[in-house]
Amino acid sequence: MQQLALSFEPGLAQRYRDLRECFASCVYQRGLGRVAAAVDEKPSNLSAMLSGDRNLDTAIIERYMQHFEDTTPALYMAARWLTCAEQRQRQALAELPEVVARLNRLMDAAGKGAS
Asked: How many angstroms separate the most distant Cα atoms in the chain?
């Protein structure tokens, strides 16, 4: 039996509202026309799918991942649905120092920092 080990990008599941938004981000990073050609769709049809005006077929996402060798949509789904509550809590706790540091910088910039 082989065990699957997944390494999640921190915050991937929190960065996007849903799979459609994650996939749209991937598409626009590479260019709508380029991706549309690779997945055999018209740019206007793909754009409508990404905006939610049309149904987004998962086969399109699979063709995208195969063509561009970008597994971000699959990793998003795994991070969103395969992590346990304890793992999500550890991830949230690990992100706190960065959030607090950013909040302190913002407070200093606003002139409200602790002196």
From this structure: 59
Number of Cβ within 10 Å of residue 73's Cβ equals: 21
Against a cut of 0.70, is the pTM above it?
Answer: no
The Cα-based distances of 86 to 80, 82, 83, 92 in angstroms read 14, 12, 8, 10
In tens, the pLDDT along 11-31 reads: 788 889 999 999 999 999 999
Q: Name the CATH topology of 12-82.
A: 434 Repressor (Amino-terminal Domain) (1.10.260)
For residue 80, give the nearest of 8, 1, 3 by alpha carbon: 8
Domain ranges in the chain are: 12-82, 84-115
